[in-house]
Amino acid sequence: MLNDLLDAAALFFIEIIEANLQKGDTLDSYAQNLIEIKNRYPIVFLGLHLSFFFVVIYAIYYNLFNFSICAIVILKLTDICAKITLLRKAKNSENFSASSYLGTPNFQIKPALRYGGAFIYPLVFYYAIS
Q1: Which of 49, 91, 97, 118 could cross-link to 15 by cystine, CB 3.0-4.6 Å?
Q2: Which pLDDT belongs to residue 59?
């Protein structure tokens, strides 16, 4: 029980770190931040998704492949793929705007949206491992 709680707490802190490293007040500033990180340090871009690797390694190590773990992995993988797709579109276009590409002009990223995953994923993770 305590180990499960500590594992969920570790995922919580990893999610908080990810949210702080991938910040932006608007969708365009968020995309610009990701573009800058990928252009400067391509390997660091994958390092920005530590929670994905944490959950995958945890699932493999403990041979735990229930619905909740698989859902977290699929959502995290979808998130990474969406970011890569967005970065590819930005690379192919000179005047790229994430807001116009997604059809949401001037989309503001509120703290609840930015840090929502830091609360939801550890709760689902704790439910899955306990």
Answers
A1: 118
A2: 96
